Each structure stands twice: as C-alpha cells, then as structure tokens.
Amino acid sequence: MKESLALVARELAPVLGVGRRSARRHPVWTEPDPVDGRGVGVVVVPGFGGADASMAVLRGWLASRGYRPAGAGLGINVGCSADLVDRLEQRVAEHAAATGGPVVLLGHSRGGWIGRLVAVRRPDLVRGLVMMGTPVLDPLDTRGAVTVACRALMALSDLGLRGLLERDCVDGTCRAATEAGLTAPLEMPVVALYSRSDGLVGWRSCLAPDAEHVEVTCSHTAMVHDPALFTALAPRLAAWVPRPE
Prior knowledge:
Blueprint: H1 2-15, H2 20-23, H3 27-30, E1 41-45, H4 56-64, E2 68-71, H5 81-99, E3 103-108, H6 110-121, E4 126-132, H7 144-158, H8 168-171, H9 173-183, E5 190-195, E6 212-216, H10 227-238
Parallel strand pairs: 1-2, 1-3, 3-4, 4-5, 5-6
C-alpha cells in the first residue's frame, strides 16, 4: 500500500508543478545553446488525457533553442485514435508549410504513437520522431490511474457518450489499424526515451525496435519538463537541424 501511494505521489507531483522552478535553474535552461535550431518546426503532442497547455514548458524550451514549436491542436488527447491521427496529420502539414520544410514530431506517451502513425503515413512531412514514455510495443501496457481512466472512458462510450474512447480502439478494427502502423517501417530517425521509474506505462513496451533508446530516470508525468531528459534530447534534435553548405 505504501509503495502504491509513493508511486501515485511521484507521478502526481509534476502535474501539480512541483520542482518546475528549480528545473528552470538547470544549465540546460540557463547556458547558451551552441547549436541554433534555425527555425526548424516541431509539433509537440501531449499524452493521453493531456492538452497542449500541459506541454508548454517543453515548447518554451524548444523556442529558447531556436526551434519553432507548435501544439498538436487536438484539444484533450482522448477519443478515437484514427480521428486523432487525421487531425494531427493536418496540423503537421500546416506547420511544415509554415516553417518551410519537414518538422520534428515530439510526442509524450500516447502522443508519441499517434505521432508515429502520422510519420508512417506522411514521411515527407517528418524529419525526425521523438517518443517519450510511449508504449509502442503494447499501447495498452498501462498502470494505475491510466488503466482506470481508460476503463471509465470506455464505459461512458458504451453508454452512448461519444468522442471519448471507443471499445473498437481497444479490441476492434481501430486497434488493428493502430498496431499495423506501430510496426510499419519508418523512413526517418527515431528516438525513444523511457524510464524504469515510469509508474504509468511499462517501460519495456517503450523500447521500439526501430529507435535509438535513451534511458532517463524521471517519472512518466515529469518527462515533459525534466531537465535531464532535455539534456539528452538536445544533441539529438541538433543532429536533425540542416546546416548551411
């Protein structure tokens, strides 16, 4: 019981903003970036149940390093996976046009595999893919509150409340389409960040076979503003920035 409560507290604390002020004093924020992002577009996709506001710290960090970040524009990340992929594809196309070239797709948790499905569908729009705590190998490999929330949303959908989480996304044709997209080959570099301390998804399911695996030590919810994760991410993003000839 104590271990479960400690896990809940570890995942809840970042959601409540604990530690964000001290994180802003980390060198990854305060020291100048030797590599300018040169306006490369980045579309940042929140995790399950999240909205663009939950990724504001990450977008601010990207902007401070010369990238041009944009939210995913999905509202709250719940609902039919196929619909979310269609909407994200449109957003990516718009941001690629606005920034003059392919963008980086950077997704947290469910946002990472929605991003992967867009990258499979439109490789011409994506220069690189980053997935943070994304259970690609098993999208249903969840723990604790996420599992409870999924069951509640499906129950509400069964009662006729649409637009949440259809049962078809879990065990029907929608899930089959998602799994096909998650195993399809990719044409761009991929980074998968995972944490053995993740209390919401199984970390082994985050080890996508087509990705560079990068281990971090933060909780699942802390990934979107963890300085150590940003430190690991910085050189990998920089490698995708085109340089003048």
